[in-house]
Amino acid sequence: MLSADVPNDARWRGSAWHACMAGCGFASCWAVPIVPGAGEVSGVLAIHRRSAGEPTPYEQELLDRSARIAGIAIERAEADAALMARQDELRQALAHLQQAQRLSQTGSFTTDVEADDHVWSDELYRVLEFEPGSKVKFQSFRSLIHPDDLPGFDAGFRRALAEGTDFDQIFRIVTPKGIAKHLHAVSHFSRSAGGHRIVAGSIQDVTAARNAEAALRAGESELKRALAQLAEGQRLSATGSFTSDIQMDQHSWSAEFYRIFEIDPGMQPNVQAIRDRVHPDDLTLFDSEIRRGMAGCEADFTFRIVTSQGSLKHLRGVAHVMEHVAGRPIFMGTVQDVSGRKAAEDARDRARSELAHVARATALSTLTASIAHEVNQPLAGIITNASTCLRMLAADPSDIEGAKATAQRTIRDAKRAADVVGRLRALFAGKPMGRESVDLNSAVREVLALTSIDLQNRRVVSQTELAADLPAIVGDRVQLQQVILNLVLNAAEAMSSIDSRARELFVSTALRDDGHVVLAVRDTGVGAAPEHLEQMFNAFYTTKPEGMGVGLSISRSIIEAHGGCLLASTNDGPGMTLSVFLPFGN
After folding, report:
1. CATH code of the domain covering residue 333
2. Which of 92, 294, 357, 583 is the most exposed place for a label (fewest CB within 10 A)?
C-alpha cells in the first residue's frame, strides 16, 4: 500500500504526486508489485479511490491475485518471446526451413468454485470461441475438452482442488465451431474472504506451437535426409562447402571439405590449417586471395595443395559475400578437387600436341622445296667463299685481306644456314605449349619465308599488310606459327585449281579496340558455302582427296588455348578469309 489517506499523509505533502492526486480528487492509493516467476518486480498494480481508507482483505487478496495473474501473463509473454527466439535460432540453423510461428495467445480468468462464478478476459472468450461477455459455467468449459483428455484433466483438477496446489496441464478442446485446439492451463487456488475457493489463472492457446513441434519433428527427419543427400552429392562431386568470417578467422566446413584437405574433422577450422597445405609455388596467390577476401572481394581461383600424406591436389575455390555482420563480410563458398579434371586436361593437351606434331610433320613434305632452297643458298655461298678463300691464300703473294673478307662472308652464310635449320627444328618439334612474348608480325614473316618457294611453285602471289603498332601477345611461338602455316598452306591449296584469275594470298595484321589483335589470311580460291564455314573446323572434315581434316581443327584448338578464336568468312569476291583473334597484354 502506498497511502491510505493522501491529503493527510506527511510523506508526500509538497510532492508533485500529492498535487496530482489532489487535482484528480483521489484520497487514497492502494498498490501491489507485479512479480513474475523470475522474482523481479516488473510493474505495479495500483487502485486510486476518492475516499480515504485501507483495502479489505478481500480487496487486498484481489489485488494480490490480479498481480499474480498479471505476473503469469508477463511470464507467459516472456516464455513466448523466449520460445520465438529459440524458434528463430532453429530456423536460422535449418537455413530458414520453418516460417515464423504465430505468437501464442493467453486469456486470464478468476473462478469462484462454490458459486460457479467466472470472470474471463476478452482474450479467453476469443480462445474458447464463446460469445464475448456471455455468462458461462464450469461445465460449459468442461464440455469442450476432448474426450481422450477429459479423464486426465478431471483428475488433475480434483487433485489441485483438494490439495490447494497449482494446476498446470496441456489438453485439447473442440470449440463450438468444431475447431480443435491445444490449450495450456495454469491456475492458482486460494480462498476468498467468505471462505470460497478461488481459482485464478490463465489459459494459453498453444495449437500453433504444438503443430509446429509436430512439423518440426517431420522437418528434422526430412532435413536429415536432405543433409545426407547433400553430403553424398559433395562426396561424389569432390566438392566441400564452407562459410567464413575471414577477418575473425571463424569458419564452418562441411565433412567433404575436411576430407579434401585431409584434415582431422575434430580440428577447429582456421585459415592457417589450409595455408600449411598450400603448395609453396601457390602461396603468394593464396595469400593474395585471403587479403582480397578480408577486403570483401569475392574469389574464384585455382591452387594446389600437398596433403599430409604427400598427395598433390589441384583445387578450385569459389566464394561470394553472403551477408555482412558488424561491417565484416561473411563468405559462403565451395572448394572442389579438380585433380582428375586437371589430369584429363593435361592428357588432352598432350594428345593435341601430339596430333599437332603429326600435322606439322605431314606439312613437312609440302615444304621440302622451301627447305632445300633455304638451306642450299647459304651452303652454296659457303662452298664458293671457301674455294675463293683458298685461292686467295694460295696466290703469290697471298691476298690476306681478301681472304679475311671471304671468311667473314662464309661465317655469315653459315649463320644463315644455322638460322634456317633452327627455325625448321622449332617449327616441327613436338614440344608442349609454352608462354612467351610473341611478335606476331615477325612470326608471319618467318612462316612466309619458309613457304616462299612452295608458293612460287604454286604460282601464288603473296602480299602482306602488317600493322606497325601491333603489340606483343603472350603464347607459344611455335604453335602460333603452326597455325599461320596451316592457314597459308590451306589458302594455297584452295587456289591450286584456279586458272581463270590470279592466285593471290593476302596476309594482314591489325590492332582492334576490344583488346585483341587480328591476323587475317585471305585467298582468291574456290571458297566455301556459308552453311559449311563452321564444318571446316570439325575434326576429320576435309574436301581434299588426301587431306587429314585436322589442320583447321588443331588450329582452332591452339587459338582457343591462347584465349582467342578462329573464324571463317566468305569474301565479297572470290575466295574466303580465315581470321585469328588473340588477346594482348595478358
Report:
1. 3.30.450.20
2. 92
